[in-house]
Amino acid sequence: MAIYIQGIGSVSPQRIDTGTKEIQFLQSDSNRLSCLEPDYKDLVPPMQLRRMSKVVRMGVASAKQALKDAGIETPHIITLGTAYGCLADTENFLEKLLTQEETMLTPTAFIQSTHNTVSGQIALLTNCQGHNFTFVHRGHSFETSLQETMMWLEEHKANEDFSVLTGGIDELTNHSFDIMSRFGTYKHDEEIGNSFTEGTIAGEGAHLFIAGNVQTANSYAKCLDVMLCADHDIEKQLKKFLKHNHIAAKDIDTCLVGLNGDSRYDETIVKNISSLSHAQLLGFKKWCGEFPTSNSFAFILACLILRNQQIPKELYLNPSGSNDKAPENVLIYNHYKNKYHSFILMQRL
């Protein structure tokens, strides 16, 4: 079943304008990409804003943008994906647990450290009293949320006004960056842009969108299917995925692929999609960094590409091989640490 994307919201290291439907790419030489946060005072009441941690502010801002873009005030249900949850609040609680020797602890940081804090705050601010789920499935968190969205819309296909707020959210903190750096997850600054070294670029982001059953004047694109894969025989699973959706490999004209510059993975990832010989290969992790729900950033990019019928030159992995063919069928192929693979098929309206 196809679902229609009717509004998008994004807080990322890049400037995405949902009004003009344009994106401004900002180059960085750092091994850590932090989000460009908007002026939250225009989106959230100041008294509520000061009680929110960074990831909650990012999630609420992204949700407000998506709702405004879709022209609705309250979604019927909310379903989000996050792997790390509210890291800063978790760290704050654990730090106080140690420094105060487990005595006189206030419960606020603990309450706000749960993974569903973001979706709960969004529900309160939008008066959404429907189903509210947060999926915490590591590198498949966003994709699982998207699957849930498609199942709910299938169940309510008779209701043309039914809307779902969904997406992926993860934040990066100093502690998490330092810990993961010790395991060789990230490159050193001087290695940025070198795909022959181990490690990638750290990232974060909140990318939400409104999905519905019918095409509207606001619709960006339609999402046909999503598939979660194990870490073996990805080529075979891609063929199965395309066959299930009655589309040939030669009909995929654009592929957003999750290459992250890590020499341990990139060669294998390219080999997995060798059958897509007619597709333009686009890279997105250079602009958002690597994190478990980075695929939600690729989803936003796919929506903009299909709506604008134009591919930003910054995304081309092989600029010399680019052409002017208008995007029709976009495949998003992502992986996280070469363990969590997924395919998302999107199509022009």
Overall 3D shape: globular
What share of the residues does DSSP label as strand, in percent? Answer: 15-25%
How many helices does DSSP assign?
Answer: 11
Task: Tell me the span between the first and last alpha carbons.
Answer: 14 Å
Which percent range fits the helix content?
25-40%
The first-level CATH class name? Alpha Beta
- Low-pLDDT segments, ≥5 res: none
Overall average pLDDT: 94
| Rg estimate, integer Å | 20 Å
CATH topology (level 3) name: Peroxisomal Thiolase, Chain A, domain 1
Order of helices and strands: EEEHHEHHHEHEHEEHEHEHHEE
Total strands: the figure is: 12
Q: Helix- and strand-based class? A: alpha/beta
So, the CATH homologous superfamily? Thiolase/Chalcone synthase
Quick one: biggest sheet? 10 strands, mixed
Number of domains: 1
Instruction: Using the 3D structure, state the CATH architecture.
Output: 3-Layer(aba) Sandwich
Order of strands in the sheet with the most strands? 5-4-6-7-1-8-12-11-9-10
